[in-house]
Amino acid sequence: MGKVTVQITLRNWGDIEMLAFGKSKAPPRELRAEALVDTGATKFHLRPSVIKELGLRQIGEGRSQATSNRFEKRRIFSPVELEIQGRTGRFDVVEVPEELPNIIGQIPLEDLDWEVDMKSRKLIPNPDHKNGVLFDDF
To answer: Is residue 32 part of a domain?
Structure first.
């Protein structure tokens, strides 16, 4: 089984809000990075160095999360705007150790309506939604 990595663009959501409310004129802190697509993960995970560069603030301890061989507490940080191949969404950030990759889990994939094409090892638009992104809002 191969792995799928994608280029992502991240923006500090707090900065976006400050700009929108007229409390700042500075553009949001932004960076581009690489992330591993992991359909076995649930949330959106970033390394501490990326969290620091974006200036995110800790908003919770989170609960113990299962890793491949143990349970560990992971800190939760303020949201970012995540952009993958032109599609954007707002997601809270779960911290992973620096030695792990940034990880895109199932929730961001579903929210942005991407599917993993393992044959070509890339993300593709959900083939069930021929007219574009589907939002399951009720």
So the answer is: yes
Instruction: Map residue 40 onto helix, strand or coil.
Output: coil
pLDDT band at residue 138 under the 50/70/90 scheme: low
Overall domain count for the chain: 1
**DSSP 3-state assignment of 53?**
helix
CA dihedral for 89, 76, 48, 57, sign (positive or negative)? positive
C-alpha of 57 from chain center: 16
Query: Greatest CA separation found in the chain?
Result: 48
Asked if residue 123 has pLDDT above 60, the reply is yes
Residues 79, 13: contact at Cβ < 8 Å?
Answer: yes
Within-domain flag for 129: no
pTM comes to 0.86
Which of helix, strand or coil describes residue 89? strand
Quick one: what percent of the chain has pLDDT higher than 90? Answer: 78
Assigned token pair, 83: 């952009």
Evaluate whether residue 135 is within a structural domain. Answer: no
Distance of CA 118 to the CA centre of its chain: 20
**CATH number of the CATH domain containing 38:** 2.40.70.10
